[in-house]
Write a structure and sequence with these properties.
- The protein has about 290 residues and is α/β, with parallel strands linked by helices.
- The chain has a single domain, classed as Vaccinia Virus protein VP39 (Rossmann fold).
- The chain contains ten helices and seven strands.
- The longest helix has 15 residues, at about 155-170.
- The protein is globular.
- Bound molecules: S-adenosylmethionine.
- S-adenosylmethionine binds near residues 88, 129 and 131.
- The site of S-adenosylmethionine (SAM) has 18 residues, from helix 5.
- InterPro entries: Methyltransf_25, SAM-dependent_MTases_sf.
- It comes from Pseudarthrobacter chlorophenolicus (strain ATCC 700700 / DSM 12829 / CIP 107037 / JCM 12360 / KCTC 9906 / NCIMB 13794 / A6) (Arthrobacter chlorophenolicus).
């Protein structure tokens, strides 16, 4: 006979791992740029069976975005992969755009991305804090498409707004921004449980992230309209998606996190006219 008390007990049990989570996360540097660079400095294996939590080791997730990307992003423009990590999405994007530039705050991430096998000739990587004032300028000549996966949800609201301003400059008058972000609704214990942590064990890629990185937030329609407000950004399309993570536990649901995707284009500030007929002048000033 089913015991109605059991699910409740199992539900509460996961909170017994809280002291361990607190102990592990205490070692993560409070300085975010430092945390990211140390994290990437320690990565020795990517792809299937690798050490990176958000690396599913396949192009399955990207293929799920491809139609939406091709619907809204101008295929004649370069694409900038903001917060590219080890560059797996930069490499996938390179098949669809004349040039793909991966940019990351971590020098170790950019070096790892550049050293990965299979980088086509139209791919390059750069180190830049994309929340820094002016970071959107000078990366590419003219407007670019922008791809962002799993970056906004790890930033504070102030840094999200700073990043958005740089995305606006990068996109200029013709580029489109594509976002794919984790939008898990739940507390940190529920999040790590979803990713396969139990009282007895924590999957290695997850433990590495907990030890080294600040606890992520979530990013969905509400956060998007705050960071990229409708007055400054035209929302072309949005929807739900599954963000695919390292399939280390072998349990399918544990390597798919509820996510959010959107395609947006910066609105031209009123009174600003395009410099060229093709509207390819970069946007200037504040939105
Ligand atoms: C969760 S990872 C996602 C990596 C990659 N987009 C992917 O999906 O495989 C977040 C990435 O954002 C980078 N990052 C964090 N803050 C950043 C910033 N201010 N400017 C540029 N990159 C940043 C980190 O170094 C890390 O590589």
């Amino acid at each position: 006979m089913p015991n109605p008390a059991k699910p409740e007990k199992t539900g509460w049990r996961k909170y017994l791992m809280l002291p361990r989570l607190i102990r592990l996360s205490r070692s993560a540097p409070k300085d975010r740029p430092l945390a990211w660079d140390r994290y990437w400095a320690g990565i020795t294996a990517t792809g299937p069976g690798g050490e990176v939590l958000w690396d599913a080791g396949s192009d399955h997730e990207f293929l799920g975005y491809r139609d939406l990307i091709l619907r809204h992003l101008d295929p004649a423009l370069p694409v900038v992969d903001v917060g590219c990590g080890h560059g797996s999405f930069t490499r996938a994007l390179a098949a669809h755009f004349p040039q793909a530039i991966g940019v990351d705050i971590s020098a170790h991430a950019a070096a790892l991305a550049a050293a990965e096998p299979g980088n086509p000739g139209n791919v390059s990587f750069e180190v830049r804090d994309m929340t820094a004032p002016g970071a959107g300028a000078g990366l590419v000549a003219g407007p670019a498409n922008v791809f962002v996966r799993g970056v906004l949800h790890v930033l504070s609201p102030a840094d999200q707004a700073a990043l958005a301003e740089n995305l606006r400059v990068l996109a200029g008058g013709r580029g489109t921004v594509f976002l794919a972000e984790t939008n898990f609704q739940g507390n940190p214990v529920e999040y790590v449980t979803h990713l396969g942590a139990t009282q007895r064990s924590i999957p290695a890629p997850l433990e590495r992230a907990i030890r080294g990185l600040p606890m992520p937030g979530h990013f969905g329609p509400k956060e998007r309209s705050r960071a990229l407000p409708p007055a400054s950004w035209e929302l072309l399309e949005e929807g739900a998606a599954a963000i695919e993570t390292n399939p280390v536990t072998g349990v399918e649901g544990q390597s798919r996190v509820p996510g959010y995707v959107a395609a947006l284009r910066p609105r031209r500030p009123s009174g600003e006219t395009p410099k060229h007929a093709g509207e390819d002048a970069p946007l200037t000033g504040s939105s």
